[in-house]
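Quick one: structure tokens for this chain, please?
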Amino acid sequence: MVCFVPFNNRNLDMSFFIFRSTVVLVDNLLDALKHFSLCTETLGCVYSSIFQSIHGNMIIWYGAWMKRTNENKELLSAALLSMLTNVSSMAILVDYRYFDAYAGESRDGSPAAKFSTGDIISMNAALLSDQETNNLPYACLALFKSYFVKMEGVLSGVCMKSQDAPRVACLYVWKSLQSCYSWILNSDCRQKMQSYVNDLSLDVKYDIFRVVYVNGDTVLKFPPFPNHGMIDNGGASTKSKEMEELQQKAPHINV
């Protein structure tokens, strides 16, 4: 199966849930997140995937959703966080955010980054300390445009910006792990991006991941998840008309 990250934000909101594993053996954690992915389909998740850090203990869950209002998105977030209580004994949820894609390139001319289980992905993210000044999307796009043609072994890449913070991220799909290593060891992306924001404090991070799941993969085990139509609110559970709307399965969207 193939998963997609589109190059624009016309149809989809993209969410990333970042976990730091607290267990040595992560098989059960990955199984739980795979079933989490299955459950999100009834909330309108169109594409989902799990990335596992090759060198560290970070795991990222990616989900793409039909465009929705901010109020509807808050309901969705509450439902997802409620479902994720099942993994709290195996991982810490470090952060979660919604992003808009605003640029991308691919070697084969596709309008989206495509990847399957087993593929290599690199991600770099930058956060600006000044909430009032946000040149990061421009800096990220300028560097992306100048670098992509020179990146030997990259298949596709996409630029994304956070919907609620001066934060940007780039995701790249690679032919091989060796190609990814070669580029990262010889690039000067951090220094170049800093030059675009003058003396403002810029926090840049990157990591390399292996795709361990995409929606459509076979899932063998079935750990329980709470009813995704029930949102925990101070110990009380309620089910609203809005949640019923969320549970309507989204149609396939071509990107």
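Residues 227-255 have pLDDT under 50 and may be disordered.
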